[in-house]
Amino acid sequence: MNAFKVVAPFEPAGDQGEAIAALVAGICSGDQFQVLQGVTGSGKTFTMAKIIEAVQMPTLVISHNKTLAAQLFREFQDFFPHNAVEYFVSYYDYYRPEAYLAARDLYIEKDAQINEEIERLRLSTTHSLMERNDVIIVASVSCIYGLVTPEVYRKMTLSIEKGQAIDTDALIRRLSDLQYERNDALVEPGTFRRLGDTLEIGPAYMEDIYRIDIEWDRVSRIRRMHKLGTFKAEQDRAVIYPAKQFVMPQDMVNAALDSIQSELLSRYEELKSAGKIIEAERLKTRVEFDIEMLREVGYCSGIENYSAPLAGRKAGDPPSTLIDYLPKKHLTFIDESHVSLPQIGAMYLGDHARKQSLIEYGFRLPSAFDNRPLRIDEFKNRLDTTIYVSATPGPTEIKESVRVVEQLIRPTGLLDPEIEIRASEGQMEDIYAEVSKRIDAGERSLILTLTKKMAEDLTEYLTGLGLRVQYIHSDVETIERVEILTQLRHGIFDILVGINLLREGIDLPEVSFIAILDADKVGFLRSLTSLIQIIGRAARNAAGKVIMYADRTSDAMKTAIAETNRRRALQIAYNEAHGITPTTIKKAVTDILTRHIEEEQESAKTEIGIMEKSFDTSVPAQKKQLIAALESEMQACAERLEFEQAATLRDEIQRLKATKE
Fold first, then answer.
1. Burial class of residue 314 in the structure, from the number of CB atoms within 10 Å of its CB (0-12 exposed, 13-18 middle, 19+ buried)
2. Cα angle vertex 552, ends 530, 390, to 5°?
3. Residue 349 has pLDDT above 90, yes or no
4. Which helix (H) or strand (E) element contains residue 195?
5. Structure confidence at residue 475 (pLDDT)
6. Using CA atoms in the order 342, 343, 349, 351, what is the torsion angle rounded to 10 degrees?
7. Out of 84-88, 584-588, 621-625, which region has the weakest mean confidence (pLDDT)?
């Protein structure tokens, strides 16, 4: 095993050293849960890296969306250039889950588009976990979804050694069993070709290829090559892992067919006895076709719905996941835990609700329930040592943890921003004056509203005053959103108006002023957590200031201001004691985002649309059920800090309530 070694041009600064020492001591003492409560810009990622270096444990870092995961992946690659840093997120560019809308008798088939590069990175993750111990995995919530067991995955390998007697035709058949495809024109990841007595294999998890020379039915040479043909290394052995993560030996598939057939007969009789003849016949037709496909080719569409019988799991047993591939002794960081933990907890319930209708109406067997993500309790039981990382940890994290370690000092000496409360009356004139000061200083401003309509109207109003303004919300496409943020940093415009500017997960050091409209409103958009997160957006600039426009001071405002002032006082004292002058971060604009792979909002919108279509709003009782369902989803979005989606749901609820029955 290569030792974990951080490569960086700087050492821990501020209170990073104290935080590292306290958390490492907790890990060495066997404490299962701890919290790293670090303010924005305090270098939490570097602290995490130094902890990994200190404890020398394989590490899983969980983030709540692909964009933040991609940023963490890049940062950990920079810190650990000599170790295996892997990226494990959902490989779907587009995903529409299978569903059945009983109210409309509408079956929606699963539709998905797989990103081949992300699929390669996922396979690289499992390959690294099989072959080495110095592994750091940056993952999304995808890590709690089912995979084949590590034992089966390791069994499904092909080992080729120099001097080994070999049957080339049998070797090709084995590659096909591992889901490799023959391509005599070009070898790419997941393919192979035969050129006379030479076999070229493109492992699905590598960008390089193996060239195997065979003479007199023996392996004479194994070379690792660049895919364009450049020689890289001579090897005595090559181990080829499967090209897909859902590959099983044919004997296991055959053994599972009897179990699937038995479950089908039982469920068929159950549906018939309940008078559901159509559902019974539908299920019989679909499952018998799948059984035939599995018997003949070892695969069928929707094979994941048979994962429990294929793996030999009992009903209700949790699936194997990426976490099971980690050694028993490992370290887990849950980044932005106030969002990530509720998201992990919500996955199981959402999946179960969707499967309920499919099973009830004869589209799937009851065992499809067991093709699922882990429940929150199952997830936590699989973890060894865990550190929750957040600027605003939730009550669950704090209650579970042995200690909460604060990291309040920024290495740059930057302070939490000044906060001021001003009356709502005359706020437009006041905002105009404040942003004008920042424009004269070459700085940028953020203005946070409560609704998309307000953001658009305010943008139009300020533009009419001759200011350069742009707005951003959930209707703005992902790539366009990134471009808008880049343009803000470049100074193409000076003011950005939005609802939730937290989930972008990026630094905007040019922003020195934030205006929070309707700061006293009670609700998720102005909760304590969101206010502290918003205030942190101005902490990257030495001139940072936040103005809350309100007619009263809410409890959330009081607590957020008190906490910010407490942190600011400690930061000022530290700077004075060490002779530090706060300096605005200078960061290249090209660093704003290196991957445009943030999870699309389209899947969420599709699910909301499906929810609405499953109710007849002309029927009062169904309309009330729809409103209740939307309110539940709104609260779930709010808990995950997906405020733009929550605001869209709120607007739809208000529209439904205002509509005459």
1. exposed
2. 15
3. no
4. strand 191-195
5. 65
6. -170
7. 584-588
> Could you identify the residue written with the tokens 């104290």?
18
Across residues 381-387, what is the average pLDDT? 95
111, β-bridge pairs: 96
Q: Which two tokens stand for residue 140?
A: 């999304």
Res. 504 pLDDT band, cuts 50 70 90? very low
Instruction: State the Cα angle at 193 between 187 and 197, rounded to 5°.
Output: 130
Collect all residues with Cβ–Cβ distance below 8 Å to 146 and sequence separation of at least 6: 304, 307, 319, 320, 321, 371, 372, 373
- The answer to whether 207 and 227 are in contact (CB under 8 A) is yes
Q: What is the arithmetic mean of pLDDT over 204-221?
A: 92
pLDDT in tens, 604-639: 454 455 556 556 677 787 788 788 878 877 777 766
DSSP helix/strand/coil, 182: strand
* Alpha carbon separation from 197 to 191, 213, 234, 389, 606 (Å, rounded): 17, 6, 18, 54, 52
Rounded to the nearest 10 degrees, what angle do helices 643-658 and 620-639 cross at?
A: 160
Cα end-to-end span (Å), the chain:
68
Whether residue 189 contacts residue 202, with contact meaning beta carbons closer than 8 Å, is answered with yes
Residue 524: DSSP 8-state: G
User: Which residue pairs, CB below 8 angstroms and at least 24 apart, start in 250-257?
Assistant: 250/177, 250/298, 252/152, 252/310, 252/312, 253/294, 253/295, 253/298, 253/310, 254/295, 255/312, 256/294, 256/306, 256/309, 256/310, 256/312, 257/291, 257/294, 257/295
Q: What is the mean pLDDT of residues 253-280?
A: 94
Distance between CA atoms of residues 156 and 249, nearest Å? 7
Per-residue confidence (pLDDT) for residue 62, from 0 to 100: 97
What is the phi-psi region of residue 245: left when phi exceeds 0, alpha when psi lies from -120 to 50, beta otherwise? alpha
For residue 215, give the H/E element and its range. strand 208-215
Q: Which amino acid is at 440?
A: D
Whole-Å CA distances, 575 to 120, 410, 578: 47, 10, 5
The span from the CA of 421 to the CA of 261, in Å, is 68
What's the rounded Cα separation, in Å, for the pair 391 and 482?
Answer: 24
Q: Enumerate residues 6+ apart whose C-beta is below 8 A from 340.
A: 62, 63, 64, 141, 334
- Bridging pattern class, strands 191-195 and 198-202: antiparallel
Structure-token pair, residue 129: 């976990």
Residues in CB range of 597: below 8 A, 6 or more apart: 66, 67, 70, 89, 115, 118
Q: Identify the DSSP state of 65.
A: S
- What's the average model confidence in pLDDT over 89-109? 86
- Threshold 0.90, pTM exceeds: no
Question: Which tokens belong to 508?
Answer: 């905007």
